[in-house]
Design a protein that fits this description.
Chain lengths: ~300, ~375
Amino acid sequence: MADAVEVHGLTKTYGTLTAVGGIDFTVPEGKVFAFLGPNGAGKTTTVEILEGLRRRTGGDVRVLGLDPWEDGRELHAKVGVIPQEFRFFEKIHPVEAIEYYAALFGTRVDAHALLRRVELEDKARARFETLSGGQKQKLGLALSLANDPTICFLDEPTTGLDPQARRAIWQVIRDLRSEGRTVFLTTHYLEEAQILADQVAIIDHGRIIARGTPDEIIAQHGRPPRLRVQASPGMAPYLREALGVTATVAHNYVEIPLPTKHEALRILGALEASGVPWEGFATVTDTLEDVFVQLVGHMDDGVLKSEVAR
Amino acid sequence: MRPRRISADLKVFGRNYLRNGVGLFFSLIFPVILIGLFGLIFSSGGTTTVTLYTQNYDHASNVSVELLAALNATGAVHVQLVDPSQNLSSWLGENGHPVGLVIPSGLAAAYLAHRPFAVTLYTNPTDQASSGIAAAAVNGVLTQFNLNASHGSVILFATPANVGSPLFTEIDYLVPGLIGFSILTSPMFAMVDISSTYRKEGLFRQLSLTPLTKGEWLTSKILWYILLTVISAGLMIGVGVLYFGAHLTLSVDMLPFLVLGPFFFVSLGMLAGSVARTPESAAVIGNIITFPMMFLSGTFFPVSMFPPGLQAFARILPLYYVIDGLNQVMLFHNLTAAAIDLAIILAASVVVFILAIVAFKWRES
């Protein structure tokens, strides 16, 4: 399958500041690609270079085979973009905004159907200034689809949205994928990337520090699966002695590495034999968020939250 | 340039504009309020006695002397004799006097013989008040003389005539001046503001992701302000003529100025906003350009009233050529002078339009 986006040795400097320090990645056609990184890592700069909004300092970038800066006009006919914090003319209604975009692109669009798709139909005739943050983002998403794009760049489309609005946007992203469109997503919400993305790249200090499917990244950078047992701390030394495992105490439970599932039987047997009271157990694996925190070491604005139950 | 995209952008911009009452107020209502204010100020200077500039070619007769004495006695007019060698009509026009009277020789002979005889009363339609007072006084005195001589049959009568070149009052200058004022202010202030807020809110970047070009976008703004200007000029002319009796000639020759004026100032506003780095400096640059022009281009007072130095300064202000052109068309009927003004604005507009397109950036590098 061809690649919708190809990035080779991309650099961007502002004076002496290096925002992007030579990165490489590709986005396969028809997949959802999540581009993650803490604030100031070079995420938005990269996205804007791909969108043709910013000029690169060095390296090569191709989106649908085109140079985004030089061939911007040709590219924009095939690209849908929601910029971060989407803004529009204050007094214009969503329906009018979609009709405007359709006229600019010369496409035929059923404005109401598009608004239904992003669950904004009830605000079809409300002025933009009266829309909530989530509703504005939904309109941005609708407008990015007005030209029937081959690839969509969604720059933090769900930031600040309530869980319901976020799920509505997730569904649109899934639909876009099933229609064969490529989705380039940046987000602060790592569980969102884990749920939606086929491919993930993590950027930090202008460099890509991890790349692959979410599972590959977790397998590569995460800790092995663990058996988590709700027990008093005294259980840990007992298990270390009885089984020769590296049991660790965390909060109210004890964690024991689980290299194979069969190991669990042996551990559970030892628990029963210990005579130390214990309650329940679960197997736990690292999430993308765990890996991210481990790799990046920080999330500078406290957005890191698991708001979604799995 | 695709008309489809221009009209789509025009529609959205126009809607957004109309739903925001502030812009509409300053474009349409505010100039009319100014016309009203200045019109009231200028029309409140009431006159008591009208000076009637008179040439008496029958000065040897007692009848003409008695007639002039009777006119003075009305208290409404004051007779002021003018050298008979002058052409009274053009003399009145040149000196800005609204009314005059010519008594041809042979008045006494005709009066005594009860033969019909005409005097000529010059009035100026642009100064209804003085003209009306003079006409009433002259006709009243003539009727009295007729009654005395022949119990009412008409001997002496006044033939009305207009003063050679029309006399313009403040309100006549005010209407083209304030049309120019609105051509300057509403696009300039709006475009300076738009150039900085669109940049700040990322709207230019967003539009850069669509097929709309900078030229199309700016063209749609120009078309919008042309539309507003035509409507606003119509309102001002309506109020000026109907309410304040302004003496204006309406012709299609005004239209090029109502089109090129907004063309120039929308482009200039965009240029001023684009060269500025911050919204604050954009506003400062906008004001530095706008304020001198607002007062010194013949908006509120004719430039011909200025001292020579200021007149020379006015001639480097682009708005001067818009207002002068409108004056030439609406007041003086001097289409040659208007065409020169038009050529200057056209050349300036094309240059500023191109500079504005080059200066303003959809996206940053």
